[in-house]
Predict the structure.
Amino acid sequence: MNLFTEKPDPTRPTDRNIRRAILIGLPIPFFLPPTVFVVSPFSAEESERLLNESRYDLYWVRERGPYFKLPENTILHVTAWASIFNLFGVIVVTMSPFVHMFYVLNQEAGKSDRTKQLVRRSLQRLFVQLNVPLLFLVVPLIIFFVQMETRIFPFMFPVITMFTVCLHPICHNLVLLFVMPTYRKAIAKGLRKLSGMRASNVVKSPLNSVKSVKSVK
């Protein structure tokens, strides 16, 4: 009886490569339309021409500071609506795993209450961290594209919301300090060590001065 094992085909993708391709390729459709909009070539000369040729009285825009008039064409409108739906898809894809995990955790009967509490606390911390980019990046972009296509918000509202994008790094770090005790302990330890070094220098300095005076005598 001859036993043999089939050699794996090197050209056949493995499960690890498939999972890696899914993780890399899944976010691309969601962020492709906003990226296309950002990298689209718009010039100041074209913006000035579109402002002069507009059927609306937009000359007052020049008195408000820097301005930019986007061209109204099919490609731009399709890109804007695709960005709106895709950014909403980012919110759904981000929230769905947490809804599922919280539901499974509540239905789990084989774990102790202490274990459930620890897992729930970890999920809550991760959930709060993921909400920061959603609130400071995704939501302002949705408001921007919706305003561009529908004009349903006040004029300055999308402009103000876009400034919240600059607050994302600061708010994200503050949230990390608030929800993660590890970071708080590390910073507190560093501050105590720094204050201890300064206190030791203050205490040692008079002694050193006395010794130097004695040595001179």
